[in-house]
Design a protein that fits this description.
Two copies of one chain form a homodimer. Chain A contains twelve helices and twelve strands. Chain A is an alpha/beta fold and 327 residues long. In chain A, helix 2 crosses helix 3 and helix 7 packs parallel to helix 8. Chain A is elongated, with a radius of gyration of 25 Å. The structure holds a DNA duplex (30 and 30 nucleotides).
DNA sequence: ACCCGCACGTCAAACGCTTAACTAATCGTC
DNA sequence: GACGATTAGTTAAGCGTTTGACGTGCGGGT
């Protein structure tokens, strides 16, 4: 044990190890303790410490969709804001699955200092007895009483509509993502509304949906294009970049000139969109910022502060690239 | 408290909650306890439980590179093998960074039932006093005494060489990944060796390296291609699919016909490789299996079994596609 | 009747740490 | 030189479980 090696009580060791030594421990003893800690490679036992304090120094982030490259940037933001005081742990669910209530309960049993939840749908958190500090990421559609940091995807969708309208497109198609997901609902409705306001038309049948997958999107586009072309569609708006990749690929295979014959837009601005050919016009979502802000809010909650704003919304930006603009 | 509501002691509650009731608790009491548990929404406190048992029911996986889509499949495998007995938690490091020794120590302070480490380099684990059950993923170059599940990337590289030789390629270029990383070293040396054995030549200057990034790979290829072409190179082997995407993109931009004028191969078989155009010949690595096997080994270690094989190596397969074969 | 074993429960120690409360010693201050 | 204030350090009471050691009845065998 560290205590005996340094010739002090465990209380003193605890004080030193937690940096609460000033005014309680003499410098001589402090160095002795540090010395012993180093020599023995002692690390404060997180379990014991958590039990005594009633809470761990862990922040748990629940995420459903780890394969999304966007997610990595969110994590980076979270980490940078969290610093070294709290240890970030990720709990992932199977792809596309929502976190199970059971799993979540067990997570709470670990007594995290705070919880970050990045799940589009999440029905049961409210039921949980004492959730403790909690911040939702990119989860619109929850009450304003629950702290969240959201992305203004509706705004992004309006930017896309504005951009295409300004470029003179009259008839456009929309390739939707998984229906029923909040973010995709927002993207679609905002786009359709704004398009209508700006005098653009979405011909009958020019709205298709598919799950997120390059190949499926390519198929969906291949199937729909003859109809769309006949209807006079000159631009296709994709609910996510992944869809757009499929469209680009299929369009190239079919010899459709982009953006000459058909303009294509994406959403999410995944890394590949910068370098694809043609490069993809897309709505950039500030992932790193999303993570950072969420973690900052969480830290405030952990410190017992009142949040001046429960709901934070981050703007998205339109990155205009080759798929909608001649080079 | 559950105990008083059911009119029993906490000991009895513990027995029931852990399924150790048979032979110790009467059925009447057991149902009473279960009833109380349900009514109160009681969940065993992980912290208290971990302290008492000396170990938590958590498996921690350390991973450096969460943005790699390959990683998601590994996770899926781990989860499926782990089942619901252990809770999987991920500890990610900043992109490209190795886990810091300090972080790792703190993780051990959480008393995980086991540790899964997916880091190409990891110098200090051996120093850690009592690491407990530990399995390394895809970390060749560690001693055979430390349990690991590895991917036979060398075999994959040989398959690539064989495939190209059989297709009649005489002069090939190699676009390497970050040098110094174990997996890339293995890929390169295995490829170069086999290529030589099979009578293929890597002309001087036909070996370039770049970090993993589509754009950088494209640049590197653009810069090197005139030389390579002059040297008679008819195929370029990429150390990772990401590089290959850059090459494909640049080649298309430059009007190089693939695979007619130049064959391209990748490595990792990322999801996009199936659907790119042309589709990419690549070495498929069994990510899901990697995760599953590693978790299975870990479970054995946790149960105190001896491993019959400390080191497991999983075969990779060559997926021959359009980038090396006319359709 | 008596003893044994069995089924059912509870006790209480232990896990490793934190922290309020307390003691002891030192130091000014009047 | 006595007293409060300050500083340094310890004691011990938890935190919420788990689990081996103990009862305590009760039925069966002799």
């Amino acid at each position: 044990m560290v205590a005996e090696r340094a010739g002090v009580s465990t209380a003193t060791v605890s004080l030193v190890a937690n940096g609460k030594a000033s005014g309680r421990v003499s410098t001589t003893n402090e160095t002795k303790v540090r010395e012993a800690i180093r020599a023995l490679g002692y690390v404060v036992d997180g379990i014991g410490s958590s039990l005594a304090r009633g809470v761990s120094n862990t922040v748990i982030m629940v995420a459903p969709d780890i394969s999304n490259p966007f997610f990595a940037t969110v994590i980076a933001g979270v980490r940078s804001a969290l610093g070294s005081k709290y240890q970030l742990l990720l709990s992932v669910t199977d792809a596309g699955q929502l976190p199970s209530a059971d799993d979540t309960r067990r997570l709470l049993g670990l007594r995290p200092a705070g919880l970050l939840v990045d799940a589009p749908e999440f029905s049961f958190l409210e039921e949980l007895s004492a959730p403790g500090p909690l911040v939702l990421l990119d989860a619109p559609g929850f009450g304003p009483e629950i702290p969240a940091v959201n992305l203004d995807v509706a705004h992004g969708a309006r930017l896309v509509a504005g951009h295409l309208a300004a470029a003179g497109h009259k008839k456009v198609a929309y390739l939707d993502g998984t229906t029923g997901t909040a973010t995709f609902e927002l993207r679609r409705t905002a786009f359709l509304e704004t398009a209508a306001e700006l005098g653009m038309e979405i011909p009958a049948g020019a709205l298709a949906a598919t799950t997120i997958n390059v190949g499926l999107a390519a198929d969906a586009f291949a199937e729909a294009w003859p109809r769309w072309k006949k209807a006079g569609v000159t631009a296709v708006v994709c609910a996510t970049d992944t869809h757009a990749y499929g469209v680009l690929q299929e369009a190239r295979a079919a010899g459709i000139s982009i953006p000459g014959e058909l303009a294509v837009t994406g959403f999410d601005d995944l890394p590949y969109s910068r370098t694809s050919s043609p490069s993809l016009t897309s709505v950039n979502l500030p992932g790193e910022l999303l993570g950072r802000r969420a973690a900052e809010q969480l830290l405030r909650l952990i410190d017992g502060e009142e949040l001046q704003t429960q709901q934070v919304t981050l703007e998205s930006t339109l990155m205009v690239r080759g798929s909608t603009r001649e080079a």
